[in-house]
Write a structure and sequence with these properties.
By secondary structure, the protein is an alpha+beta fold. The protein has one domain: PPM-type phosphatase domain (Phosphatase 2c, domain 1, 4-Layer Sandwich), CATH 3.60.40. It is built from seven helices and eleven strands. The strands form two sheets. Strands 2, 3, 4, 5, 6 and 9 form a six-stranded antiparallel beta sheet that branches. It has a five-stranded antiparallel beta sheet with strand order 1-11-10-7-8. Helix 1 packs antiparallel against helix 2. The radius of gyration is 18 Å and the shape is globular. The C terminus is likely disordered. The structure holds manganese (II) ion (MN). The site of manganese (II) ion has 6 residues, from helix 5. Manganese (II) ion binds next to helix 5.
């Protein structure tokens, strides 16, 4: 399977800093979005440390292992997130201005015809397939727990004053529980990774509609999603990363070594518009 990907991050309309970070690394088949939290720009430090630690971990684990089985890939991503948790935790201990910082993380790692997904916190992974959209990640949040217990409806959760309280994050404890899953990919599937600056502003059906309308150009789709989140108020930083499974390749287990099928211009990667 070959994969194409694009990303866009934006500060939004209300915040002064962008504390989201991302990694788009088709050479190692890795895609990550992280949403940092903590005062005085510490959130940006946390999300950046997390993303860079995972990237380094996967790069080292995958060097020369083009034939790695999927179970190894799953462990690699989970271990990379544990390493990121330790790195953020240690930085928070070592630097007074970073005390209490933390970050969410959502990640996808290519594993031949399958993908490994792992996450902590309330950033999300959706899958768009055959005209439908499904949320594959389960929020680690207070309102999700209340929904699970039947104490809150989805509609009530959307407006709850507690909806931003998360129950897990990287960097707060020496170790963290990571949710990991594997999914088979079909050609045409699109995985969408996002921070809550997107999912708070747009319903899943609206996300689906915008991606389907622009599915022939993932960069345009990312831009349209960010633009719509800003049109709704842009109350938080917005990051959206799209990964599309394109076709069945001849040597799927080595797909992460192949060049990306979609070139991302340097000018677009990480682009954000202060204040907009
Ligand atoms: Mn956020």
């Amino acid at each position: 399977m070959k994969y194409a990907a694009a990303v866009r991050t934006d500060v939004g309309r209300r915040r002064l800093e962008n504390e989201d970070s991302f990694c788009l690394a088709p050479d190692i088949g890795l895609y990550v979005v992280a949403d940092g939290m903590g005062g005085h720009a510490a959130g940006e430090v946390a999300s950046r440390i997390a993303v860079e630690t995972i990237r380094e971990w996967v790069t080292r684990s995958r060097s020369g292992d083009g034939e790695a089985p999927e179970s190894v890939t799953a462990a690699c991503l989970a271990d990379g997130i544990q390493a990121a948790n330790r790195a953020v935790f240690e930085a928070a201990q070592a630097r007074p201005e970073c005390s209490g910082m933390g970050t969410t993380v959502v990640s996808v790692l290519e594993a031949g015809p399958r993908v490994v997904l792992a996450h902590v916190g309330d950033s999300r992974i959706y899958r768009i397939r055959a005209g439908g959209i499904a949320q594959l990640s389960r929020d680690h949040s207070v309102v999700q727990e209340q929904i699970d217990r039947g104490l809150l409806s989805q509609e009530e959760a959307a407006t709850s004053r507690y909806r931003h309280l998360i129950t897990r994050a990287l960097g707060l404890q020496p170790s963290v529980e990571v949710d990991v899953q594997e999914q088979a990919c079909q050609a045409g599937d699109i995985l969408l990774l996002c921070s809550d600056g997107l999912s708070d502003m747009l319903e899943a059906d609206e996300i689906l509609d915008l991606v389907r309308r622009h599915r022939d150009d993932l960069r345009v789709a990312c831009a349209a999603l960010v633009e719509q989140a800003n049109a709704r108020g842009g109350v938080d930083n917005i990051t959206v990363l799209l990964v599309q499974a394109c076709e069945h390749g001849g040597a799927p287990s080595r797909s992460h070594l192949e060049a990306p099928t979609l070139e991302i211009p340097e000018s677009l990667v990480g682009e954000w518009i202060p204040g907009a």
